[in-house]
Here is the input.
Amino acid sequence: MARSWQETRADKARIDAASGRDVDRARAVAHARTQAYVVGFELSRLRGEAGLSQAEAAERSAPGDNPAAER
Here is the structure.
């Protein structure tokens, strides 16, 4: 007989707890990675519409816009 979704979720929760996995932290990390991907995709689309390469867009950015570039 097939297992219910509730049984499957309960088993996964027990496995995660037993292995010490922090599910909330893993969810937050996955969300941050997804958001970074979405923002990167959007920036790529906007650069393409403007006819700029990534390097050209970086050259045009104001010095204060990219703190990593000032290191």
